[in-house]
Amino acid sequence: MVEDESPLERERRAKVVRIRAAGGEPYPWSFPGRLPTSEVAARAKALEPGTHATGGDPVAVAGRLRTTRTHGKTSFLDVDDLAGSLQLFVRVDELGEERYQRILADTDPGDIVGARGVPLLTRRGEPSLLVHELEILAKAIHPPPEKFHGLQDPEERIRRRYVDLLASPETRQRFVARSLLTRELRAFLDGERFLEVETAALVPTASGAAAEPFRTHSNYLNGPLQLRISLELPLKRLLVGGLERVYEIGHVFRNEDLDSIHSPEFSELELYWAYADYTDMRALAERMYHRLAQRIAELLPESPAAREAPERFRPPFATVDYVTELERRSGISDLLSKSPEQLRALARAAGANVPDDSSAGKFLDKLFEHYVEPTLERPTFVLDYPALTTPLAKRHRSRPGLVERFELFSQGVELGNAYTELNDPDEQEERFRAQLKGRGDDHYAYDADFVEALRFGMPPASGFGLGIDRLMMALAGIPSIKDVILFLPVRPRPT
RNA sequence: GGGCCCGUAGCUCAGUCGGCAGAGCAGGCGGCUCUUAACCGCAAGGUCAGGGGUUCGAAUCCCCUCGGGCCCGCCA
Question: Does ipTM surpass 0.95 in this model?
Answer without folding.
Answer: no
